[in-house]
């Protein structure tokens, strides 16, 4: 019995997002260095640790389930929504996690896009949540 781990799943989601041309992908936040200038459009992946789920009444916890958020950011509302569309496309197929069979990420949606006046220049963002599941291959 192998207990599933979260990092290969995070790597699979990040790899899927990095297939989007002309889009910067960050994990857990944007660079904190002074002088960093955000790109015109980018996304930030915020994973959770997930949970090992019972595969049967035998209580073998080999299945995996997690929810994660992708915050889509753009210099305009249109660019923010472009990022959300590209993220949705990139996550429309099953993930590739070594040694596991993964379902397609389930799109859980998010709130309306919002303007962020704390950035200079102002930007737009929308957090979109997804649920992933996998079982041993």
TrEMBL record:
Chain positions covered by the region annotation Disordered: 100-123
Protein name: Tail terminator
Species, as recorded: Streptomyces sp. R28
């Amino acid at each position: 019995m192998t207990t599933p781990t979260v990092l290969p799943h995070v790597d699979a989601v990040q790899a899927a997002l990095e297939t989007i041309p002309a889009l910067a992908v960050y994990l857990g936040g944007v660079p904190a260095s002074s002088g960093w200038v955000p790109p015109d459009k980018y996304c930030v992946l915020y994973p959770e640790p997930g949970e090992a789920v019972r595969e049967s009444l035998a209580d073998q916890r080999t299945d995996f389930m997690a929810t994660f958020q992708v915050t889509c950011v753009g210099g305009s509302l249109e660019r923010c929504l472009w990022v959300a569309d590209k993220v949705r496309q990139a996550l429309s197929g099953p993930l590739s996690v070594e040694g596991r069979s993964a379902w397609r990420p389930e799109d859980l949606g998010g709130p309306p896009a919002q303007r962020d006046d704390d950035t200079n220049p102002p930007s737009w963002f929308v957090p979109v949540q997804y649920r992933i599941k996998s079982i041993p291959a």
